[in-house]
Amino acid sequence: MNSRLVITLSLSLLALSITACSGMSTRDTNTAAGAAIGGVAGAVLTGGSAAGTVGGAAVGGVIGNQIKK
Predict the structure, then answer these.
(1) What is the secondary structure of the chain as a DSSP string?
(2) Separation in Å, CA 2 to CA 31, 37, 43, 45
(3) Residue 47 CB neighbours (<10 A)
(4) pLDDT (tens digit per residue) in 8-65
(5) Residue 29, class by beta-carbon neighbours within 10 Å (0-12 exposed, 13-18 middle, 19+ buried)?
């Protein structure tokens, strides 16, 4: 899977998932956004590997969770 397709699909899923975040707290929203952005970054940096995507999502989720308003 090429990186352009991964990025497009990830951003589409992010856009759809953010609409479901209306009832979430700010911290939960930041965690979800961080995981999505981290997953895309991990996929791009590792050429689309599953381990890179999952690792990026995990790190991004932790960072997003720690960001304050």
Answers:
(1) --HHHHHHHHHHHHHHHHHTTTTS-HHHHHHHHHHHHHHHHHHHHTTS-HHHHHHHHHHHHHHHHH---
(2) 26, 17, 10, 12
(3) 11
(4) 787 777 777 767 667 888 888 888 889 888 988 988 888 888 889 889 999 999 999 9
(5) middle
pLDDT at 69 over 70: no
Structure token pair of residue 4: 């352009």
Taking the C-alpha atoms of residue 37 and residue 32, their distance in angstroms, rounded to an integer, is: 9
Q: Which residue has the tokens 């790190």?
A: 59
> What pTM does this model have?
0.68
